[in-house]
Each structure stands twice: as C-alpha cells, then as structure tokens.
Amino acid sequence: MHPQLTAADIDRIIEMAWEDRTPFEAIAFQFGLSESDVILLMRTHSKASSFRMWRKRMKGRQTKHQMLRTTSVTRFKCHRQKAISNNKISKR
Questions:
Q1: Are 52 and 63 in contact (CB under 8 A)?
Q2: Is the pTM of this model over 0.70?
Q3: What SS3 class is residue 69?
Q4: CB of 32 closer than 8 Å to CB of 62
Q5: DSSP string, 26-38
Q6: Exposure on the CB side of residue 65, measured as CA atoms within 13 A
Q7: Radius of gyration of the chain (CA)
Q8: 25 three-class SS
Q9: What one-character-per-residue DSSP string does 33-66 give?
Q10: Of 36, 68, 84, 85, which is the most exposed, with the fewest CB atoms less than 10 Å away?
Q11: Nearest to 20 by CA among 59, 72, 71
Q12: Residues 70-92, mean pLDDT to the nearest whole number
C-alpha cells in the first residue's frame, strides 16, 4: 500500500473500484496501485459485507480488466456518467 495517499485519493480509488467501466489499469495509471493493492484498500476501508459484495460483483467482470475488454471499449468511464471532478486524467 502507498502511505502517501490522502483521504481524498482513497475516496476516489474506492469510487473508481465500484465503477463498472473503470478498469484496474486506470487506477494503476492514476495512483500507482496494482489490482491486489486495490483489493487490500477495499478490504481495509469497507465494511466486511460491502467488501464481499464488491468482490462478488468485480470477480471476472470484463470491463474491470483491460485485457478482457473488447476492442470497442476505449474509454475509462461510461458515456452516461457525469463529469468527475478532481480526476487526474485530463478530460478529453
């Protein structure tokens, strides 16, 4: 885990982890956390039931893993999602 993460960074990582179309690679790109680091962060900053629900939802989800995505998905977020403030990736 990276101790230099602020509370705002942790909140954003949790939000990104719950988003269906945000791959773990996007979290790694923005915050330098591997998938296992994100899982550890979710385990330590979530209630046990919330963590289990998240793991069940994310396990094998194609949109959370860049290598499993189809080539037609080229964005980090859903086109219906509102603009995100404090996003470290410039908006295109």
A1: no
A2: no
A3: coil
A4: no
A5: HHHHHH---HHHH
A6: 10
A7: 13
A8: helix
A9: --HHHHHHHHHHHS-HHHHHHHHHHHTT-GGGSG
A10: 85
A11: 59
A12: 54
Q: Which residues contact 35 (CB under 8 A, 6 or more apart)?
A: 24, 28
Per-residue tokens: 57: 């939802």
Residue 81 near residue 19 (C-beta atoms within 8 A): yes
Virtual torsion, Cα 58, 61, 64, 70, nearest 10 deg: 180
Indicate if the pLDDT at residue 82 is higher than 60: no
Measured in degrees and rounded to the nearest 5, phi and psi for residue 79 equal: -65, -20
The token pair at 50 is 């919330």
Give the residue carrying structure tokens 């998905």. 73
